[in-house]
Specification:
Structural class: alpha/beta
Radius of gyration: 20 Å
Low-confidence stretches: 1-25, 48-64
Shape: globular
Strand order of the largest sheet: 1-6-2-3-4-5
Mean pLDDT: 82
Order of helices and strands: HHHHEHHHEEEEHEHH
Largest sheet: 6 strands, mixed
Number of helices: 10
Oligomer: single chain
Length: about 290
């Protein structure tokens, strides 16, 4: 418990230091919003950042480049953030698993930025709250997945809000789990487009009736629409369409897959390849094969 509290204290200190170079914000904003808005403004304008950033191992130039604020005229980088659900560290070929076949993810692992020192929250929603705000999840109002404990505080400044302010087009696909009603939904928290299932998993009580990962109904900015195909395929295809449509602009796509969250529903052609390797698990073999197939 002491480590997250220490990290949160350090983050607050850095934000307070950044505020000294900030502009006057709207008086209606909360102190947290004004602090983060000033930080985003400093990043976006290329203003010099205080020393603590460098002490954390990130140069000021690299920090500004993260939101496309480099003084050079080079194109700002697009950001594609993929988050799977209920998948452990050891369930990837690139992490040493000799049974599961994940060649595409292994290649992404080799080519992409990897967060090797991120500490997850206690469960799903808290982790998402931390990733999207930079705050210790409990301080953002999210410390569980049920009972109203997964609602991200209204005054939290989110990553898509900051990136939108820096000129990025932002879209979300898949799982949200930080609120299914106004004003907590993804398209109300900085994303201009959100295609999402409800609740903590496809088929949960708030989700579309009959959803089972195949040809499901998802919420498009709050409006239900049926999509053809497997959930993971739908989310990636929609994200690629968004990227194509905004190819001339910097964009941020947050693809939060429901898979491999239970129930373990997947086409047989993906799970059958693991039947023999998981047979030793007995009555649990089928679930493990399907989990790997997802």
């Amino acid at each position: 418990a002491g480590v997250p509290r220490l990290l949160h204290t350090v983050a607050v200190f850095l934000l307070q230091r950044c505020c000294r170079r900030g502009r006057t914000m709207d008086a209606s904003q909360s102190p947290a919003q004004r602090r983060l808005a000033r930080t985003a403004a400093a990043l976006a304008t290329g203003a010099q950042m205080p020393a603590p950033w460098a002490q954390l191992g990130r140069s000021r130039a690299a920090t500004r480049a993260l939101v496309g604020a480099s003084s050079a005229p080079a194109r700002r980088p697009n950001i594609c953030f993929v988050l799977t659900d209920d998948q452990g560290y050891g369930e990837l070929g690139c992490h040493g698993n000799t049974v599961i076949q994940t060649p595409a993810i292994d290649q992404l692992h080799a080519d992409a930025v990897r967060f090797t020192d991120f500490h997850v929250g206690t469960t799903c929603a808290p982790t998402r709250a931390g990733l999207l705000t930079g705050h210790f999840c409990n301080s953002a109002g999210v410390w569980h997945t049920i009972g109203g404990r997964s609602l991200l505080r209204e005054d939290e400044w989110t990553l898509p809000t900051a990136l939108s302010g820096a000129g990025y087009r932002c879209a979300h696909y898949g799982k949200w789990h930080l609120g299914d009603a106004a004003p907590f939904r993804a398209f109300e928290r900085g994303f201009e487009v959100s295609i999402a299932h409800a609740g903590g998993g496809i088929g949960n009580t708030p989700d579309g009736w009959g959803n089972d990962y195949f040809d499901d109904i998802y919420q498009v900015n709050g409006v239900p629409k049926r999509f053809k195909g497997y959930c993971t395929d739908v989310f990636f295809e929609e994200a690629m369409s968004f990227a194509t449509a905004h190819n001339d602009e910097p964009f941020f796509t947050y693809i939060a897959c429901n898979a491999p969250h239970s129930p373990f529903n997947v086409a047989n052609r993906y799970s059958d390849r693991y039947t023999e390797a998981t047979a030793y698990l007995g009555e649990d073999a089928s679930d493990r094969a399907n989990f790997y197939g997802m």
